[in-house]
Specification:
The chain has 114 residues and is α+β, with helices and mostly antiparallel strands. The chain has four helices and three strands, in the order αβααββα. It has a single domain, classed as Arc Repressor Mutant, subunit A (Orthogonal Bundle), CATH 1.10.10. Strands 1-3-2 form a three-stranded antiparallel sheet. α1 crosses α4.
């Protein structure tokens, strides 16, 4: 995954983004990358070298499942979908993310005490 300024993402962020994308429905790899790019306002770009190892790892962990299908352009592709375990992982990951964002915001924008 690459940011414009080459900022490294925290461990697990790619998993969170992929799982969230699959919450909207089954997608093939290229569609996942395009959804993340579009929904991030072109800020986040997932590289193939990061995406497919992550998809394979998440499939081994049973967070996602895959099946071959046909894209809208009539090309054969592997489609990934969220499993029940993946939904649980997504919920847990979102909760952890919200906690981290709140903690970072507290450091960056501390409330002055009266």
């Amino acid at each position: 995954m690459a940011f414009t300024d080459k900022i490294d993402l925290l461990q697990g962020t790619l998993d969170l983004l992929v799982l969230e994308t699959l919450r909207w429905g089954p997608q093939h790899g290229y569609a996942i990358t395009q959804a993340i790019r579009a929904r991030s306002g072109d800020v986040l770009q997932v590289e193939t070298g990061s995406l497919y190892p992550a998809l394979h790892r998440m499939e081994r962990q049973k967070w996602i499942a895959s099946a071959w299908g046909t894209t809208g352009q009539n090309q054969r592709a592997k489609f990934y979908r969220l499993t029940a375990q993946g939904r649980k992982k997504l919920t847990h990951s979102r909760d952890k993310w919200e906690t981290m964002v709140s903690a970072i915001a507290g450091v960056l924008n501390p409330q002055t005490e009266s």
